Structures are given as C-alpha cells and as structure tokens.
Amino acid sequence: METRVITRREQEEEAWRSSHSAKFSSHSSKKTFTSSDEEPSYADFYPIIPGDILSAKEILNMKITPYHRTWQESLLLKEPSYRDKWTMFGNEAEKVEVAVLRNQRALRSRVDRVALRTQAEEKAASDLRYRELLSQRPPDFSVPLRAHCVWEGMSVTLACTLQGCPPPHVTWFKDGVELSRDAGQPWNRRLGRTFGLHTLEIRRCSPEDAGEYRVVARSALGEASTCGTLLVNTVAEEQEAGFSSLFPPTWVKEGVQLRPSGRVEVTSSGASSLLSVKAAQKEHEGVYTLRLAGHHGPQEHSAFVYVKDGSAVVSGGPASPLGVQWSDVNLDYVFLSWLPPSADGASPVQGYFKACHFPVSGLKGGTSYCFRVCAVNQAGAGRWSKPTAPILTSDPLEVTSRQVTNTYLVLSWSEPDPRGPEPLTYYVERSVGNEDRWETASLGAVVSSPLYPVFDLQQGAQYRFRTRSVNKYGISEPSDPSELLSLGPPSEVPDPAHSVLVFRDSDSSVVLQWQAPPGGQEVLGYYLYYSLTGSKQFTAHGLQAQKEYVFRVKSVGRGGNSKYSDESKPVRVKAAIRAPSPPSSVALLMCSGSGMVLSWRAPASDGGCAVRGYYLDQRETSVQGPWREVNRKAVEKRLCELIRMRAGRHLAVAEFSPPRASQLRPLQRLARRGRRKGPEHFRVSAANLVGLGGPSAPSQVFRCEEWTMAQPGCPYDLEPREVRSNSLLLRWEPPIYLGASPLIGYQLHVSQGDQSESWAALNDEPITDTFYKASGLQTGQTYRFRVSAFNQAGAGEASLPTESITALTQPGTREVEVGVDEDGSIFLAYEVPAAAPSDSSHFLWSKDHRQAIDGGRATVQDKDNRSVLTFREASEEDLGLYSVELSDQPGFSSSYQLTAADLERLTELSWQIRNPLVGLRSGWQVEVREDGGVRLWLQTEPLSAGAELRLVLNDREIAGTSRRQVRLDRPSGVVEVLLDPLEDEDQGSYTAQLRDGRARNQFTLLLVEHRFLQTLSQSRANRRNVQRKKGPYFLEYLSWEVTEECELVIRCKVTNLNKDSSLKWFKDGKPLTPTVYDPSSGASSLSIPGVTQEAAGSYRAQVADGRGEDISTLDLLDEEFDKLLQQLSKHCALSAGQVQVQGTSEGLRLYCHLKFYHTYLKTTWIFRERRLEQDSRARAGCSVDTVWVDVSGPVDTDGGKYTLELFDGRDTHARHLDLSGQVFADALAEHQRMKQAALAERKRAKVTKGLPDAVAIMEGKSLCLTCFIDGDPSPAACWLRNGQELSDQPPYSMARQATSSAITIHTVSAEHSGLYSIRVSNEHGGETATVTVSVYRKGEDPPAHAVMMG
C-alpha cells in the first residue's frame, strides 16, 4: 500500500509539472501564476521568451551564438550600418535571454515550493478539524461522586472524574446553591481541577458542611451531573491522644491488613504501637503502613522495611528461594512452586532440578504439612526459604490436567464409576512406545489420589500409561492406555530485559522502566539492582540523594534467573521538575490614570526548573464573572506596567524597568489616557518548562486613578536574607512613585507572631540604603517586617508585610569562607547542602548588596553546590561587603565583610603561595658509615617528579662521580652526597639548590676546619676497623663496671675466632691470671674483689691468630680510676644497712654493715644534728665490711638520734638510729653485762704460753712438757692423758710453781704416745690446752708435722 501511494504522488507531481510547463510555453498568456496568496510573477514585468528559443544550457554550451528571428529579418536590410546595429542588438538580446531563462527556472522552483507548502498546510488543517470532530463527546462522569461519612473536625475530599470534548464547564452545588471558585467561598473549602479530576476539599468539617453536593458539567454537546451526600457526625467529648478501643491502630503491608499470628505480634499501649515479625524472611520485605482513624481524619505513616539477605551458610553458597507455594492438593500429592533466589552465590544454582516447581507424592491423607526449599550450587546448600502455610491433604475439589516437564510427567485420571464405598488405591503401569509389554510405574508407592508424578523417564522416548483400581475386594481391569507421551523440553532461562530507562522521581527514589524479554517468554518477575556510578558492587536497597547511580535488571523464570541486562544511563537521584508554586503579594506600585505598575513576589518553589515568565489575569469587582487573560506573551520580570487601551476593556502589558536611584525624580504630572474603569482584582501565575503553575491569591481592589499624593508610594520586593538565630538581613526596592519631593530615607517596622497587627519601629532614624541588618532577635521567635519610604511630605504607604520568618539558624547552614587557592588568588567561597541546588539553580553574588560583581576584578565559578568568587588582583578597591544567595532558594544566603586587615593577611598568604619555598624537614647531617664512607644528607617535604637539584661546592657546581655520588629521592625529599673515600679536597661549603615547580630553596653545609678534621679522622678509623675485622677482633672493647657485690669486673668480647685464636690479658705490660674466657661466645672477664689502689693501672687484652690480631686497652688511672672509686663508693653506700647499737665492755658501739668499705667513701657521724667529734669518749673505726663509732662510759646524755652520712664523692647517703627509750636502756644493760663479763675474763684461769700442737721423741729418752698459767686467784692445774687424769708417780713427775706447771716422762716408750692435756681452773673459770705426743723408734722417720723433742 505504501508503494502505491508513493507512485500516485509521483504521478500527481509529474502532471502538475507538465501543466506548469505548458503555461510557461504559451504565446498568448503572459501571466501564469494568478493565485491571490502568491507573489507577483516575473511575467508581469518581463516578456515571455518564445518556446522555440534554445534552452539556456544549449546556449551556454554552444561555441557559435545562435541566430534569432530578428537577425534573419535584419539580413534583408542592405545597408551595412543597419546590419551592424542589428548585430549589436542581437548580442545584447542574447545576454538578456540567458538571464531571463535563469530567472524563469528560479521562479518555477520557488512557485513549486510555495504551492506544495500551501497544500500541506491545508491538508494538516483539514486533518486537525476532522480529528477534533471525531474526538468530540458529550460530558460523562466516568467516576461519579460517592457518599462520605466523617467525624466533626476531620477533612474530606469529594472527587469525581469527568470526560468530554470540548472540555465542559463544571459547576459545584451544595443543597442547590452554587459554590463559587473565588469570592464568597468558605475558608475551609477549596475546589480543585487536575486534568479530568475535579475535587472539593473540605477541611475541619462542621455540621454546616453536611448536605447533598452536586456537580453539573455543561458543554455544547450536552449536560451531565452527579451527586453525593456528606454526613458529619459530632463527638460529644474529644478523646485523649493515644490508641484506644474506639480507634484501634491497623497495620497494613502493601494493602493487606496484618493480623496477630504465630509470627506476627501487634502490641498497642498508650501512645505507641509495636509490630513484631518473628524469624523475618525476604518475603516480609515491603511497605508497612500504620493507619489510625480519628476525629480529625485518618492518619497514615508508612515505612519501607528492607530485609537484608542473611550470610551464606557456606562460603559462596546461594541465597534462599522465595515465594514457596503449593497447589493441586490431594490425599497423597502436592505440587510445589517457587521463585529462584536473587543471589546465586559464587556459581549458578544447580539444585531443585533446575526448575522452580516439583510434585511431592507419597504423603499421608488427612495430615497437615509445611514445605520449604533451599538452593544448591557448587559451594553447597544455601539457606532455607520461608515455610509455606500449613496444608491439609484431602480429596481434590477438581481433577487437574497432567503436567509435562523435562524431568517428570504428572498423570491424572478419573475415578471409576461406580466408585464403591470402600477406599481406593491405584496402580500405574507404563509401556515403552506401542509395545504390549507393561510394567509397574508406581512400584513401592501407595497411590491414593488420581494424580501421580512419574520420574525416571528417558528424554526423547515415548510412553503409554494405564491405571488399575484396588480396594479390599480386588484389582480392577486396566484402563484404556493413554496416548503416547514424552518428556517436554527443558525449562529455558529467560532472556534478560532490555532498554532500561530511569527517570527522576524524588530525593530518595527513581522510576525504572524496561522492556520485557522478546519472544513472549514466560517471566515470573524481575530482580532490580543498582550501583553508584563507577562502582562494581550492585545492591538492591537504599538510594542516597544527589548520588549518581546506574541500574540493571534480571528476569526471573521457571528455569532460573537470566543474565543481567545492560546498565542504564547514569541518573542522579533528585526530585523531578514540576510546575512552580503560585506567586504571592500582588501590589500596586504606581498609577497614572491610564495605566498602572504592578509587582508580586516570586513563587516559593520554582519546581526544580527556572521560572520562564508570568501570566496575569484580571476581573472587575463589579462583575462576578470569570477571570480574563491579560497577557498572552509571558512577562519575564516581576514588575510590569499595564496600559489601558482607548478602545475596549483589554489591557496592553509592557515590562517595566525601574529607574536607577540616580534617575529617580518626583512625578509631578501624568497624562490621563483612556476612560476610567471600575475597581479590579489581579492574580498572577508562574510558568516554567513543565507548564503553568497555580494562580496567586487575588490582589486587593485596585482602581486605575491617577496618584497625586505628595507622599511616596510603597517600596516593593521586601525579602529576608541570611536568617540566623539572632539576626537577619532585609532587602527591598525603592518605590516607583516618589511623590512631590525626593526620598529622604526608609522606616522599618516589625511585628511578632504570625497574625499580630501590632507594629513597632525597627530603626530610630531613617536609613538611606535599601537593606538593613536586623539584630537582637529571639531564637525561635516568629517575626514579620514591612518598610515605608519618607520624603519631605512624610511617610508613604507601607510595603506588603513579609511572610512569617522564624529566627532560627537552619541545620547545615554555612557562612562565606575566605581564603587563598593553590594559585595564590584570594577567593570567597560559599557552599550549600548537596540536596539544595536544582537543575536551574545558580549563585548570585553582589557587593554591598546592590553592586554587581565587576568581571574585570573578579570571576565567579559554580560547581555543584559550591560557588567561588576569585579576585584577579585583590586591592583596596575590592574592600566591602560581599553577599551571595542561591537563585531559586534565597533562604540559602550569607555575606562577608572584606576588611583591610583581611586583605593584608590574605595578600601575605597569597605571596607565600605564589612564591613558595621548598619545606625543610631535616637540615644537613653528616654521617660516617662503618666502611669509612661519609654521607651528607638533608630531607625536605616530598617533591614532585619534576623537581630539580643543583649542588654547589665552594661556588662551583659539581656532578656525581664514582667517588662522589649525588642522589635526589623525590618522593621522600632526601638529598644525599656519598663520599667514599673522604679526601682533603672535599672540605668546603656545600649548597643544595632545589626547584620544584614554583617552589625554590637552598640549603648550605659548612664542612671545614675542626668538623672536617673530626669527620676525616672517624672515616679513616672506620676504614681501619674494617681492615681489622678481617681476623679476630673485639666485638666489645674492654670496659669496667662495679657490681652490686662491690666487685670490679673488666669485660670484653671477641668474635671471628677459630681454633688457633688466643686471648691474653696484661696489666702494666705484665700478664694477668686468672681470667674467665669462653671461646664459644668470645666473652672474657676479670674480677677484682676488694678494690684497692693496687687495682689502678693500664689493662690490655690481645686476641690473635694467623689471620691477624686486635688489641683493646683500658687505662684505670687518674680521673678514670677516680670515677671507678666513685662508682664503687656509691655501690658500697647503697649496700649499707641501718645503724645498729651494741653494748661493749667499754661502752656502746654504733655500727653499720656494708658489703665492702673503701677509704674513698667518706663517713661522718652526726649526733643530735651536730657532728660527733673524735675525743677520748668517742672513737670511730672501720673494717672491710663495717663502719662504727665507740662511745666509752655512756651516760644518760648520750641518748638521742645518731646519723651516719656516707659520701661517695657525688651524693650523700644517710642511715639513722634513734638511741632513746627502751633501745637506749637495753644498750646500757648490755654494756653492764659485757663489762662484768670482761672483768671475769681477765681473772679467769688460762694457759698463757703453751704447748705445741704435736711433739715427737725417740723411744728411751725423757720428755718434759711445760706451760705457763695465770689467774686470780691462782688456778689449780691437772694433767691428763687421753682424757685420764695423771698422778705424780713414775714414770711421771710433776712440778708446780706460781705461774707454771710441768710434767716429765722418764724413759719414754711407745706406750707413752697419746693426747696429753693440762686443765686449769679457778672460781672465774678455766680452760684446757692439749698436745699430741708421738714416740718413734730409732731408725724411723718422725712425723713431719711434729716438733722434735730431746
């Protein structure tokens, strides 16, 4: 059909061209195109060239100019001059001919285009009229009004849906009285119209609102009406807030009311209601709503509950299946179906036969069952699904048809007729193909229902089935065989969805749209996933405002889940654009008698899209008629001038540009034009990209009468900015009408509360600026403001009050930030919450609240929710007050006063940024390595990859060599110079010059004189040390320490030993022994207990073998030895115990024990805080481990506090004794005892000179043993042999004198050998002295230890 239409159109065009060609070739017609709506033809002004003239193409391509008929006529003329003239004329005519032909072709193309366009427009208009005629229909209420019954104080909305074309006129009636849309309507009623939905909202219903409401729709095609009754019940006493039996709360999940059960528990008490769901599953996810019916209307609160998937039972395991349902319930058979899990885990699901359905047989009749399912993949089994509701197996209500899948067949049959009263069971038999060999298919199973699933069938094979009935009386004959049956094709996984589209909806949601899989595939549902743009992790819940997301969809079928669809285009989560809200506060600013200037406030919300213009409506107050449109072309500004035309009642609208402050002049006279009309109302509607918003409230009554008062008109556009908890900023525009004299200033008034009419002056003196900072406000208090203008005649009319303003700093409010950016430019920045800006939002900056930002001095850059004003070269000209606001949300505003102090501070910081220095972390350091190499290094802040280093030594740039290596580690900022070896030419000044972009710096090291010599010496010593360590060497050199036992220990440790290595000690060149040496560890030590002056000297240790030797020396002389003695004294003093007292025969001894005492340790005794001087009664003394003082002849005055001070050469250590009281008494008593004991000891009998320990005498000689004795009184003496007392008889003879006693043995023999002793005693005591006598024969050797006698 389409080809024929095109062919017919081509034929028509060809015929049309032919007709036009014929017209152009006619000799008689000079004017071809005579249509009234076409332009005049060139044929009206130029003659038509005859058709036998050659075409322009032929003429232009010919080498010889063709002859014209006039030329042939000219040949008849014989005069040459005439021939020449005609030849010239022919040439000129030839040129004209070519031009005319070209114009003809252009004219023909133009006429063709115009004619085609005219035909297309006529056809489109005809189609439009035809469609309008077809779409016409009389009014009809597709959804009529319905009756409502509400409580008093509740709100109700009466609604109906109307269809009709052209749109019918709708009128509302209450009890037969028309309800007006504008004037005379009660405050609580509001009529609404949205497309075909007509609503009547009644707020806070009262008994007066009850009645019959009727809606009448009229059009040229007819009339329709609908009615509904409203009943308002009154409540005698208002109920307290809270849940009660009268208004119980109702919990609803996605339209289904939730009732208490085993898993759902609802608890309501007081003012709270709690819904608890036990063992939550994924099926419990959704929107939960709490509904409460009250006197003031139903209230609902909803929340989306997202149930997160539980962790996998095994790592990589799948999630739980969803929506397990049962069907085809029989006595022993149930069919289960479910949805696959949303997450397959680490591998695809392999369980439940790869299909989401399964027949369960072998159940027990009359028994209640619950079922659940889990998915299985390669990782293991996942979580169990939510259990199904209990199902009781029973006889089916109807017999279902069989089901065929790729894994089983479900057979169904009818029960035998007659059935009989006895219970029946069945046998199922099968046969392969058409064979007549039958086998039992239900072997081992009891089939009680006429449904049975058959498994273990081969794919591609065909089977026949038949059944037998069985009761207690026997088995029936087999039924007729079924037709050939086979397994069905496998359940296919559906294709993924495609064409995923995302649309903005709100700040927390989006609308998704996609196309189903092609080919009519069975799809059970879809899983939706989203991810932040750029992220690889897809989730399924929790969108965040102002974040950008991509979405994808997964199809769900019987065979499982499809692959993911292609990702959608990124979309930012934000509210969709909508029509703007109504403007407000329509005000009359000036009237000249023939026109008036109106202004109004911008809509509170622009709907997320910039307002493109405003439309005004007017209505005369004397005629209660419809509103009339004032302007068809939108007014872009909120200030316009209405000029009344001389004819008719229409108004011409012109945008009004207010004069600048310098151009304001008083209006003396205004010419009056047109005729005066009655009072009028005006209203304004705003329009944006979406469409026209709602109209504003009607204005006050405005009369078009010339203003002649001397006072100025009212200011306009009074708006709040920078609302904070204790202050705000007011801005306004000056009045258009100035009165009889120039303006003097402005007076502001404030009113507290929303509806208060009590106004108080805000400023004492008139202000000349058109902005004012109001401070001292109360936090949380509501205010309204207005402003009046003053001139010499007085105060003019006040402006319209502002909306109610609450003095409160909103959460997230930020102030203007001042700083310096990375390029060193001074900037002011302002940031609003991320969700605040819309697509049409932009930031408005101004200086001193009126002056626009000079583009030559500063630039403004907006990015997302942040705006930055950057000064090109800040100077004193830029000082002032800078303010900023969000274009469509002026509530987000702030200001900053840039002062001279700020400019100075920021300029300094700018210079530092533009001329940066490379930061230094650590200055030049000099390190000598163990191998003798020297490392010079410094560290700066991290450098970029393009940083450069220039190293200068003694005013000469140096580069790296094999001996002098120069390195720069840019990430760490380390500059190092390695000198190996260090030589004399390396002495000097090192300067590292660094450059990193714009940052520069240099650092100098002076390695000269003493510092250089010290470094060189250490470097060479380390190099020698390296050479030394090739053989055995000292890992730890000789060192000394004093132990807690007050011993001096000198240690060293050697390493790199072998079996031939030896270690020797020397003191002052002489070998030392013994020393302790452990070859396995290399540790050796020398201990010197009881250090004396002899320990001073030069100690040396030497380790050597065939590879080399190493020596370590230690000089314990002079200061080092004094240091040793000081450490020894300190340890001795620390080891001292407390001072003790002991009674002696001569008096009292106060003493203190130490582990060791050295004379270097100075001791001082203090008695009663005075030094105890040495005298005849007090004598101090010391020993190796004790320090004491003896007090002779103690008396009572010797009692008191004694202190022993031990000074180790640096510190003083004190020990104390309080010798008083019982301690002093006990010491004196002990002194008396010791004194008596000493006296008795002096008088006691004792042997003063003695006998040797052993004597030897040859046999046959005489032995005389003599000893001296003493005692008072003179002691008695007694000799004994081997413990037996001897008498003065041969061979013994005894002699006694006053001070001695002797015994003689005559002619000794071997039997006289033994232990001889003498015992002396008196009244004070006694003692015994012994001697061993050995008798040997002649020729024998006497004992070696005996004294030879005789």
From TrEMBL:
Residues 139-233, 1032-1112, 1245-1334 form the Ig-like domain. It comes from the Eukaryota. The keyword Repeat applies. Residues 297-392, 395-490, 714-812 form the Fibronectin type-III domain. InterPro entries: FN3_dom, FN3_sf, Ig-like_dom, Ig-like_dom_sf, Ig-like_fold, Ig_I-set, Ig_sub, Ig_sub2. Keywords: Immunoglobulin domain, Repeat. Residues 1-39 are annotated as: Disordered. Residues 1-17 have a biased composition (Basic and acidic residues). This is Myomesin 3. It comes from Muraenolepis orangiensis (Patagonian moray cod). The lineage of its organism: Eukaryota, Metazoa, Chordata, Craniata, Vertebrata.
